[in-house]
Amino acid sequence: MASHMCCVVPPYLLDALCECSDPELREMAASTLAFGQTIQDERHEFSQGGFTDTATDHHDDDTPGPAQGIVPDYLLESIGGSGEDPELQKADRAAADAEGLSEAGMVASQSGFFREVYDMEHSAADTQLPGKPRRAEGDGPHSDPAVNEVYDNALKVLLFYQKYFNLTSVDNNNMKIVSSVHYGSRVTNAWWHHNQMKYGDGIPGKLGHYTNALDVIGHEITHGVTQFHSQIKYNGESGALNEHISDVFGIMVKQIADNTTADKADWLLGETCFMPDIKGVGLRNMLHPGTAWTRAKVTVMEGDDVQPDHYSKIAGILKNDPDGVKRDHGGVHYFSGIPNRAFALSATRFGGFSYEKAGKIWWTAVTAKEGSNPPTYRIPSTCTFAQFADVTVEVAKELFPNSGADQVVRTAWNDVGVQVKAH
Q1: Most buried in the list 31, 171, 333, 411, measured by CB within 10 Å?
Q2: Please, what's the b/e burial string for 9-42 (b: 16 or more CB within 10 A of its CB; e: otherwise)?
Q3: Does the annotation mark 122 as catalytic?
Q4: Ranges for the Peptidase M4 domain (predicted)?
């Protein structure tokens, strides 16, 4: 099984911060970009194509996948200004108790999982991973808050997968969940890589705090789930779907922890990562892509955040920012907003909690196999948005027959410009 490296801060966000007026942010963004590129070069996994899938299937060998994080380069390149948004005061959101993810549930289920948290002490040398041990399964709290945040939030994500999708750890075989905090110096990102997670510290008061962002940890652990339960490649449209899948399950964990139904949720991913010194409400807005943060300099398309909310806008981004798309493995972070909106629209129209219908449909679509000798995934390795949409509509009809669920999903995809074939 090949390892996979995906980061929560996308390249376009980092690019954006490199052009901001804050010298500290510029330095941090530039160092994170350079660091990420170095990792990519070392892994020989950077795709040379545009918005087409030319990368090697990450199941083919043991070569680590691309070095992509949750904060986009384009945001890191040009976000500027200041101003405090009320949404940013929800810093303790990730610690909320909710049914199924309560402290009592955590204690009761603790023996079924294996977590270890290490401290890299600001080293970015992968040869030193995972770092110095700080807390292992069953240990009491550590003096370092970051250690405890990762330890507790990882369990909430594991409980989420166990309770709602009958999955025991990312491999469904009690795989140990290893996390390394304080990764690198002035690195503002979080990664899933080499079957473990790595967390940089960012800059206090500006951008960071990934260890206490439950949806970020859900996003990264889901990259592990995708690694073990899907063959989807990390490039172009299939790569954007890979990022989308992590966003979907990361946001579901957050909504459950908040006890928030789909229609009442804010659909913001990584909202606690943006602190008062940066204008923005989160890393991504899944319901309204392109509205999560403010750019000081608009370089790609109208608006602030550059994520498109409709398939028709892809061509303009490919034309106006080909280098950014290429660096982002064919737009895996840019274009994930399109399927994100389709999911959010489906979930809000279904009503109730997002995991109840939309989540079950997406989970089945991603993990289901068909045929025999050997069975194959319903989602191909080079899956396009249209192919993925087709499968979700098929699955909706199978899971919820004679309910109109398939039409809800079909309409959501049509609303973002992805046409679903007749079934």
Answers
A1: 333
A2: bbbbbbbbbbbbebeebbebbbbbbebbeebbee
A3: no
A4: 116-227
- Helices 236-257 + 145-165 axis angle, to 10: 100
- Quote the pLDDT of residue 183: 93
Q: Report the alpha-carbon distance of residue 202 to residue 208 in Å, rounded.
A: 4
Mean pLDDT across the stretch 250-275? 94
Cα gap 240→336, rounded to integer Å: 5
Q: How far is residue 398's CA from residue 147's CA, in Å, rounded to a whole number?
A: 43
Contact 420, 408 (CB under 8 A): no
Domains observed in the chain:
241-415 (1.10.390.10)
Q: Give the whole-angstrom CA distance, residue 210 versus residue 28.
A: 15
Q: Which residue has the higher pLDDT, 96 or 146?
A: 146
Which has the closest alpha carbon to 336: 261, 253, 272, 251?
Answer: 251
The single-letter code of the amino acid at 69 is G
Q: Which residues face 136 on adjacent strands?
A: 116
pLDDT for 84-114, tens place per residue? 232 323 323 333 334 445 443 444 445 489 9
**Is 220 a known active-site residue?**
yes
The mean-pLDDT minimum among 143-147, 216-220, 371-375 falls in 371-375
- Point out the catalytic residue in the list 182, 271, 333, 394: 333
Residue with tokens 């303009």: 316
Alpha-carbon span 93 to 272, nearest angstrom: 8
Q: What is the mean pLDDT of the chain?
A: 81
- What is the pLDDT, as a whole number, of residue 294? 67
Tell me which of 116, 220, 243, 271 is the catalytic residue.
220
- Are the C-beta atoms of 116 and 136 separated by less than 8 Å? yes
Contact call for residues 141 and 148 (beta carbons, < 8 A)? yes
pLDDT at 356 over 50: yes
Output DSSP code: residue 280: B
